């Protein structure tokens, strides 16, 4: 499952959530610290893990 990074406007904290695509598409993300709904997604680093050695 993908990991998403969010920023809460209410408490001004960053947090991460692991969501399924269906959960993410619902768009009902709440801050786990304050319960606020004024959150927006932050840019997250992406990396791939493969079985080949480079």
- Helix and strand run: EEHE
CA(first)-CA(last) distance: 25 Å
Round the Cα radius of gyration to an integer and report it: 14 Å
- Spans of at least 5 consecutive residues with low confidence: none
Class from secondary-structure proportions: alpha+beta
How many β-strands, per DSSP? 3
Sheet with the most strands, sense and barrel status: 3 strands, antiparallel
What helical percentage do the residues reach?
Answer: 10-25%
Strand content: 25-35%
- Number of domains as seen in the coordinates: 1
Tell me which oligomeric state these chains represent. Answer: single chain
Outline type: elongated
Q: Count of helical segments?
A: 1
Strand order of the largest sheet: 2-1-3
Whole-number mean pLDDT: 85
Features of the shown structure:
single chain, 54 residues, alpha+beta, three-stranded antiparallel sheet, 1 helix, 3 strands, elongated
């Amino acid at each position: 499952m993908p990991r998403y990074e969010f920023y809460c406007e209410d408490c001004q904290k960053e947090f991460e959530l692991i969501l399924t695509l269906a959960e993410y598409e619902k768009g009902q993300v709440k801050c786990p610290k304050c319960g606020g709904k004024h959150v927006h997604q932050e840019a997250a680093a992406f990396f791939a893990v493969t079985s080949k050695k480079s």
